[in-house]
Amino acid sequence: MTYLQNHTILSSNDLDEVRESIRDLASRHDFDIKGPNAELNVRVAAVESGDISLMHVTLDATKLSVTSSEQDPDGLLLYMLTSGSGVAHHCGKDLTFSAGRGFMRDLAAPVSATEDNFGAFVLRLSKDKLKNHARSLVGDDVDLMGLSFDPAIDSCALGWTIFRNTVHYVAEALDGPLREMHNPIVTAQMEDILLTQCLSLLPNSYQDSMNGRDATTVVPFYIKRARDYIHAHADKKIGLADIAAVAGCGYRGIQRGFVDAYGKTPMAYLRIVRLKRVRAILLAELDGHAISDVAKQWGFTHMSRFAQDYHREFGELPSETIRKNA
């Protein structure tokens, strides 16, 4: 599919021309094509309407390495992939991406990536503009923690699905019925929608405040990322090192963050998640399995200690749970 087909500004296989075009539109990137007989075909489409700056970039190359140094401390680039795949290193994290996924690049930090037939919408954002928009919606207290985004965006998250649909809608509108209509009111409305959804639906330090929680109880995005990892991998063997690595911070930082947010350490939080998974099975149906089998499935190898933890959490023994629901 050709995105923003009425706004194509570059179609080229000249690497130097591509570098200059991307630099003028977004930020300076250095491209290098990998492999023998490698070819590059690039299409860039861009549209600006009011303060909306939206591009679609297609880098048709089997292996392309991209590096970009730190540049604009106020700038963000949100990539919403429409094709291809790759890996990137940004803000101390290794990110994988593919069609349907996205990531947020902070232009204050460098990035390096390897891309394979990459295609993406690129939305340029201003931190100051996002902050001002947040203040206009929820008040000055939102700025207590500063604004920062998690570069990794969960492609399965409902918020990302909604935001991705909105970007497609805006692109189609600007490429179609609004192409010849210069209506500042309509443009301002679209910009408000994009800024509001960006702040409320994508993982960032303002997200909870935007969704109605007191700013003083906001859970940092890196703690929420670790929390989500625990829920998704509770049946696997994971330790504090794994959780800290996902969060992108040290042992002390992740310990303190979980205690501040949930009143317990990450490993204690994991234990409770696992206990609740066991209880859900006991309340449903064992299908001929023993309690010990279910407990071991969720990482409990010491049955006496497991029974004590279960009783402490739910006020009854596992066997009593089964009897009550027989």
Automatic annotation (TrEMBL):
Residues of the HTH araC/xylS-type domain: 224-324
Key word Transcription regulation present: yes
Gene3D superfamilies per record: Homeodomain-like
Pfam families: AraC_binding_2 (PF14525), HTH_18 (PF12833)
The keyword ATP-binding belongs to this UniProt entry's keyword annotation: no
GO MF: DNA-binding transcription factor activity; sequence-specific DNA binding
Keywords assigned by UniProt, alphabetized: DNA-binding, Transcription, Transcription regulation
Listed transmembrane segments: none
Domain of life from the UniProt record: Bacteria
Family annotation (InterPro entries): AraC-bd_2, AraC_XylS_family_regulators, Homeodomain-like_sf, HTH_AraC
Name of this protein: HTH araC/xylS-type domain-containing protein
